[in-house]
Amino acid sequence: MESNLVKSALKNKDIILNIIKKFPYENKCKIDWRELPEKGEMVEYSAEDGGDVVSEFETFTIYAVKSYSKIFSNANDKGKPEEKAFFGLLLPPKYSMSRVSLYREILEASSSLNSIPKNGMFLFDGSIVPIIAWWRPLSSIKNGYMLDSLIDLAKEKMQENEENIRDINELISDKVEHPIMPELLMKRALNGYSLDDSDWYLALEILEKLYSYKVLIEKIWENNSIPVFITKTSRSRDFCKSNLPDVHIIRRAEPSNPGYLIWEDSIRYGSYNITGERKGDKMFPNIGNISDFFERRLGVLKLYARLSRGGSILQIEFLLDNEKNMPNYESLTEELLSKLISISLQKGYPTSLVLAHHYATITYNDMESLIKISGLEGEVRERTMLYF
Fold first, then answer.
1. What DSSP state is assigned to residue 293?
2. pTM of the full predicted structure?
């Protein structure tokens, strides 16, 4: 190992350990750890997850995305899973990781539409915040006004040649197979049309993602079910406002006991309150009622919980419909948690999400096989230039 790295590790060792283990901020954050409610009646539930891999060649970028969703029941198997996948050439090769993640999210939403439970819960791996906060990945689009302007420009671009989508309204339709944009961009390139630097295509990709999740969440609600986003390694500091994540402080205060933590600000409505970011007066496009849904209708009940003794502390976000009358947040929390702990758990984490992650994963060997199948095996890889 390089000697300067060793010297730096030895130099900063005590500082790091003091911050992690002594945490002088413990008295500033009161942990009111509550007992879990009794298990409720068995409910129907679904789980989904997705995977993605990016392979950088010397002059182009290839990617693969995959999704898996399935309805589960503690009583019996509810049928076949819904699986989708896409392998493509990223065009143009800008914002590679962010855009491939965006394609994966759209694919996940698309497959999930066919796995919606009735009177139960739909489990998602991760937080709702990255879904809402489309502006976080670095790009040229900074607000909803720019997004609307680029969508208008895209309407003109779509008329340049024969596309499978000629009207933006077709892009925000549940009658077509999503994601649309990756294939559309490859077809444009094949037909000789170059993509300029205005990022209009990125605006359409963001639009497709926002619309896909709006439709999915609404349909889950229509089936009298609750979308539940579960984060295993939360970095949120919403509650304690400390330098380290809330879960770090909670774990120190409650090392093993099952339970949960809620607070007065646990329920939030509207995208700006949910994300904790106010980027401007307008951040969502006018088209497809997307702005109204994310800025007004969508709500989140956020809490931290350990669902079994010695298990991890999870960040859990129950998505709420602001158009429905909800009980007070304490009774609502107990009702929702009683349903959540009724499902199959593996060390305090939903077994169904473990399975969904397994089946959605794209391995290195998978990607290498896809590269061979697509005839790209002999192309120069980006990192081969760094070998010595």
1. I
2. 0.92
Alpha-carbon distance 356 to 125, whole Å?
Answer: 9
Backbone angles phi, psi at 319, to 5 degrees: -85, 125
Q: Which residues contact 265 (CB under 8 A, 6 or more apart)?
A: 238
**Concatenated DSSP letters for 258-273?**
-EEE--TT-EEESHHH
Binned at pLDDT 50, 70 and 90, residue 30 comes out as confident
Instruction: Check if the beta carbon of residue 252 is closer than 8 Å to that of residue 106.
Output: no
> Tens of pLDDT along 82-98?
999 999 999 998 889 99
272-279 — which CB contacts under 8 Å span 24+ positions? Answer: 274/128, 274/129, 274/132, 274/298, 274/299, 274/300, 275/129, 275/132, 275/133, 276/238, 277/133, 279/135, 279/142, 279/143
Q: Look up residue 64 and give its amino acid.
A: A
The greatest distance separating any two alpha carbons of the chain, rounded to the nearest whole angstrom, comes to 65
CB-based contacts of 278: which residues, under 8 Å, 6+ apart?
A: 272
**Tokens representing residue 137 in the block:** 């990945």
Q: What is the pLDDT of residues 216-275, one digit of tens each?
A: 999 999 999 999 999 999 999 989 888 899 999 999 889 999 999 999 889 999 998 999
What is the C-alpha to C-alpha distance for residues 221 and 320, in angstroms, rounded to an integer? 8
C-alpha to C-alpha distance for 380 and 371, rounded to whole angstroms: 12
Query: Nearest Cα to 349, choosing from 123, 71, 129, 131?
Result: 123
Cβ distance 181 to 209 under 8 Å?
no
Amino acid at 158: M
- Phi, psi for residue 51 in degrees, rounded to 5: -135, 155
- E strand or H helix at 158, and its extent? none
Task: Specify the range with the lowest mean pLDDT, choosing from 203-207, 246-250, 267-271, 327-331.
Answer: 327-331
pLDDT at 20: 86
